[in-house]
Specification:
By secondary structure, this protein is an alpha+beta fold. About 25% of the residues lie in helices and about 30% in strands.
Length: about 140
């Protein structure tokens, strides 16, 4: 991680990821599969960056709108609902993707169960949030 006083925790994590082919090697997120998603702000239209824990479903990346267990969905979720075109940095690759939000139904449930199987600590979020957690499929655009 960087040691400049003006950097944020997020900046430090991103610097660590970029230095290690996408792997987080220091701090509380060590070993977590993280990606950097840049979306367009729903209200501002400005680029918005989010660090997200992911799982895979075939070639797609899957993320959950947990907001770390908060009762409301994260701001980035509203951004991808408003504009499905996002940019993803995962590993040592950057690519465009289409975000598909799933808030109910069998596919949402399948992706949630698969996500929890890969990342067991997510299981507690359903009770903690008191809401159905939306699942987002990030499909690379080729």
């Amino acid at each position: 991680m960087t040691d400049g006083a003006s950097t944020t925790f997020e900046d430090d994590v991103i610097a660590d990821m970029r230095a290690h082919d996408g792997a987080v090697t220091a701090g509380p997120l060590t070993g977590h599969p993280l990606l950097i998603m840049t979306s367009q702000g729903a209200k501002t239209g400005q680029p918005r960056r989010a660090l997200l824990t992911w799982s895979r479903d075939g070639d797609d990346y899957v993320v959950a709108g947990t907001a770390g267990g908060a009762p409301k969905a994260p701001a980035w979720f509203h951004n991808v609902e408003a504009n499905q075109e996002v940019s993803i940095e995962a590993g040592n690759q950057t690519f465009d993707a289409k975000a598909t939000t799933l808030v109910d139904g069998a596919e949402r449930e399948r992706l949630w169960n698969q996500h929890v199987a890969a990342l067991p600590w997510f299981a507690a979020y359903t009770e903690q949030t008191g809401r159905v957690i939306p699942m987002i499929r990030l499909t690379p655009v080729r």
